[in-house]
Amino acid sequence: MMETARAEVEDFLFHEASLLDAWRLDEWLQLLTDDATYRVPSNDRPQSDPKSALFTIADDIRRIRARVTRLKDPHAHAESPRSRTRRMIANVRIVGDNPLVVEANFVIYRFRGNEDVRQYVGRYRHTLERRDGKLKIRSREAIMTRWSSPPWVQ
Amino acid sequence: MSVTRLVLNEPQAMRFEINRAALVDQKIFEAERGKIFERCWLYVGHESEVKNPGDFRTRTICGRPILFCRDSASELRVFLNTCRHRGTVVCREAEGNAERYTCFYHGWTYDRDGKLYAVPGQSAYPPSFDKSQLGLQPPPKVDNYRGFVFLNFDAKAVSLREYLGRATEYIDLVLDQSPSGRMEVIHGTQEYDIRANWKLLVENSFDDYHLITTHATWLDYLKSSGVEIKRPEKGHVLPSHGLGRDLGGGHGTTDNVNFRGRPVAAWIPIYGDAAKPELERIRSEVTARLGAERARRVCDTNRNLLIFPNLVLLDGSSVSVRSFQPTAPDRMRVRAWALGPVEETSLAREVRLDSFLTFYGPGGFATPDDIEALESVQTGLGTYKEVQWSPLSRGMAKEGDQLNTDEAHLRAFWIQWDKLMRGA
To answer: Do residue B182 and residue B250 come from a single domain?
Structure first.
C-alpha cells in the first residue's frame, strides 16, 4: 500500500476548501466517494452516533447531493444571494493509515451582504480513500468548537 | 375599538396591525423582561434530561443562571445558580452528576437539595449567621406538566396547569405517541443564535403562510424523493388542510392534515423500505391503544404549538422542543432538542432523528431559510420610524374556522403580549 504524505493530504484539503469557497459545488461532489457521509454532531455531543443522538447534519451521499441541489437553487434563501466565505485549514495531521484518517482545524469566515463576519471554528475528521490514484473523501465530520453556533451550518 | 401604541386591534374595521417598534426598540425590549418574562411560566427543561439522583444541567433563563437537577431523593429541583455568599455561579458545568455543589471562590458547599452543607471557617461568623437560611434559592415557583418543567419568577402567578389551559390538549397529543405517555429528550442540543427579535421566531414557528415560498427547496426535496405534494385547493396556499387555533392565554397552534413524513407513523420513501414494517407496527400500537379516531389525530396530523411566550413544540417531521432567550432587541439564542417515546426501538429512533434533520435545525433543509427570513425582516425593520405598521389581519373577515395560513393564532399571541405590556 502506498504511503500517503502529509503534503499530499494538505494539498487535497486546500483544494477541497477552495472549491467550496468558489462555490464550485459540482466539482466538490467529485471529491467524494459514492458512499460518502458528512456529519456535524451537536456541539454538546461531539462524539456520538446519529442513530441515537441529535446531530446538526448527518448526510449520506444522497442527502449530500440533495444538499448541493438545494444550495444551487435560487430559492435556497439562506444562500441567495450567496455568502462570501474563506476557509482556513490548519494543523493537518494524519492520525491513521488504514483507513487513512486525517484531522485538521478549520476557521470559516462567512460574510453576508455588508454584515460583520460570522466565524465557524472547529475540527475536521476525514476518512480519505485512494480511488484510481486520487484521494477522495469517504467520511467527513466537522466538530464545532463553540457552544452555540452562528445561525446556520452547511 | 382599542388602539394602543404597539398593537392596533379594530375588530369592527377588521384591522389588526403591529407597530414595528415592538420588534426593534430597546426600551420595549427592556420592558418585556419585567412585564412578560418575569410574569409568565418559562420552560426550564424536560425531566428526562436529569434522569438520576445528582444529575444536573445548567441553563440561562430570562438572564438568570439556572441549575436544573435531581436531588438524592430523585426529586426534580430548580435553583438560581448563584452562591449565597458572594454571588458566584456555583455550578459552572453545562451538565453532569454531582455529589454536592461547591462554590470554588470561598468553598461554600451545597447539598443536592440546595441546603448549605459546609462553610469553611464558619466559626468566624457572628451568631446571627444562619446556615439554614442560606441554601441555594429556588425561583419563586417551579412546576411540571407531564415531564415539562417550568419556572415562574412571579410568586403570585397562577398555577402552571391553569396557565397552560387549553394548550394541554395539544401537549397530550404529542405525548400520546408513547405507549406509556412518556417522551424523553434525546441526547444532543442544537444551540444557535439568530440576529432577530424573539417575537419573529414566535410568529415563524406557527405561521404556515410562509411555507410554500420560504421552503420551496424543502418541498422540492420531498418531491424528488417520492413524496406526493398535492396542488393546493382553490383559494388555499398549502398542499393539505390545516387550522390555526387560538388556545387562550397567548398560546396557539396549527392543526394540520399531514402530507410530510411522520416518525409516528406516516412512512415516506426517505425513511427507507426497511423502516416500513416498523412504522406500520407503531401505527397499529397507537390505534389499538387510542382507538382509530385519536390515532388518526396522533399519526396523521401535525401541530406547531406555541406555549406563551417562548416555548414551541414542533410535531411534524419529528418532534422538536424549541425555546429561545432574547439577548438583545435584534438577537436571540435558540435551543432545540429532539423528543421521542421512551419505548422507541432503535430503528424507529433512527428514523425520528434522520427525519428531524430533513427539516429542522441550522443544518436542516428548511430552518436555515426561516432564519434568513427572520434576519432579513430584522434588517428591513431598520425603517421602522418611516414604515411603522405591519398588517396581521389574514382571516379576520372569515366566520368560523381559521386556517393555519390565516393569522388568528398569531393575533392571539400579540393580543396577550400587548395585554401584559400594558400591565393589564
So the answer is: yes
**Grid cell in block for residue B383:** 425603517
pLDDT tens, residue by residue, B213-267: 999 999 999 999 999 998 888 888 898 899 999 999 999 999 999 999 999 989 9
CA-closest candidate to residue B195, choices B28, B334, B20: B334
Give the pLDDT confidence score for residue B334 in this predicted structure: 96
Distance of CA B27 to the CA centre of its chain: 25
How high is the ipTM of this complex? 0.94
Domain assignment present for B3: no
Least confident among A2-6, B120-124, B414-418? A2-6
Last residue of a domain, one of B156, B190, B205: B156
- Per-residue pLDDT tens digits for A97-115: 999 999 999 999 999 988 8
Listed residues B121, B156, B191: the one ending a domain = B156
Residue B269: count other Cβ atoms within 10 Å of its Cβ. 12
Of B299, B215, B291, the closest CA to residue B261 belongs to B299
8 Å CB contact of B187 and A41? no
Which chain B residues are within 8 Å of A81, Cβ to Cβ?
A: none
Could you please state the CATH topology (level 3) that the domain comprising A6-144 is classified under.
Nuclear Transport Factor 2; Chain: A, (3.10.450)
Please report residues of B whose CB lies closer than 8 A to that of A48: 187-188
Question: Can you tell me the distance from the alpha carbon of A102 to that of A82, in angstroms, rounded to the nearest whole number?
Answer: 29
Its domain, for residue B111, covers 45-156
Burial of B66 (0-12, 13-18, 19+ CB in 10 A): buried
Asked if B206 and B410 touch (Cβ cutoff 8 Å), the reply is: yes
DSSP A48: -
For position A153, what pLDDT does the model report?
Answer: 58
CB contact A65 to B (< 8 Å) = no
Same domain membership, residue B227 and residue B81: no
Q: Name every chain A residue with its beta carbon within 8 A of the beta carbon of B372.
A: 77-78, 152
Residue of A nearest to B188 (CA): A54
